[in-house]
Amino acid sequence: MNLDLLKRSNKSVGTKQAIKAVQKGLAVQVLIAEDAESHIVTPLYELCAEKNVEVIKVDSMAALGKACGIDVGTASVAILK
Q1: 8: domain range?
Q2: pLDDT tens per residue across span 37-71
Q3: Is Ribosomal protein among this UniProt entry's keywords (predicted)?
């Protein structure tokens, strides 16, 4: 996925928000930074597997945050329907 598209997409930024979006059935894809701490993103990986939501790995939290238009890194982002 081209990260530049994130700026124009409906999204939930952050792991807690991504988990909520997946639980509610609103997420079509989840992007997770490879450098995120595993204890933070493991529940999201498991939930995505359970709900059959596609997971895309991204190089870094900084790149993911920048692509979302925020000044800080983020571990994950859910792309919404």
Answers
A1: 3-80
A2: 999 999 999 999 999 999 999 999 999 999 999 99
A3: yes
